[in-house]
């Protein structure tokens, strides 16, 4: 027996495109709280999303904006190391915030829900990872350039 999940349990690319890689469970006993079961993910993604949801960097610099202070709790668990999924729980204030409507660019009021918080956290995480990848590419180019100059 090994630590690799069985192939038939793993998600296929079509499943991701159809949204079959996650399930949302609203917590009825607690308003503005949801749990998200994210298939094929582990602590790596769980911790990135938790940090982005809580915007830990902003706490240190004091630069947290109004939207991000609306996340009261964000945590995740991986129920078993051999099960390829995590459960992410998010609790927000549900406070009504002004956001831009995607279609006509007008301001509308919208409750800050766990779904909205997770979407924002995912966008920030992708941007942060893109920035890291770009810095890495620049460092590689500089290192290669220095090697060529030494020769």
Automatic annotation (TrEMBL):
Annotated keywords: DNA-directed RNA polymerase, Transcription
UniProt-listed Gene3D superfamilies: RNA polymerase, RBP11-like subunit
- Keyword Transcription applies: yes
Question: Any keyword Transcription?
Answer: yes
InterPro entries per UniProt: RBP11-like, RBP11-like_dimer
Entry similarity comment: Belongs to the archaeal Rpo11/eukaryotic RPB11/RPC19 RNA polymerase subunit family.
Query: What protein name is recorded for this chain?
Result: DNA-directed RNA polymerase RBP11-like dimerisation domain-containing protein
Start and end of every DNA-directed RNA polymerase RBP11-like dimerisation domain? 34-134
């Amino acid at each position: 027996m090994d630590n690799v999940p069985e192939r038939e349990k793993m998600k296929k690319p079509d499943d991701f495109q159809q949204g079959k890689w996650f399930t949302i469970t609203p917590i009825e006993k607690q308003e503005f709280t949801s749990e998200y079961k994210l298939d094929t993910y582990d602590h790596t993604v769980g911790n990135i999303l938790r940090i982005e949801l809580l915007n830990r960097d902003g706490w240190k610099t004091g630069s947290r904006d109004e939207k991000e202070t609306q996340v009261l709790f964000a945590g995740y668990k991986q129920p078993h190391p051999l099960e390829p999924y995590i459960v992410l729980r998010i609790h927000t204030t549900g406070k009504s915030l002004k956001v831009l409507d995607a279609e006509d660019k007008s301001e509308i009021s919208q409750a800050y829900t766990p779904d909205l918080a997770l979407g924002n956290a995912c966008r920030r995480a992708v941007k942060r990872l893109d920035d890291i990848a770009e810095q890495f590419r620049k460092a590689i180019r500089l290192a290669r350039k220095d090697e060529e100059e030494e020769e």
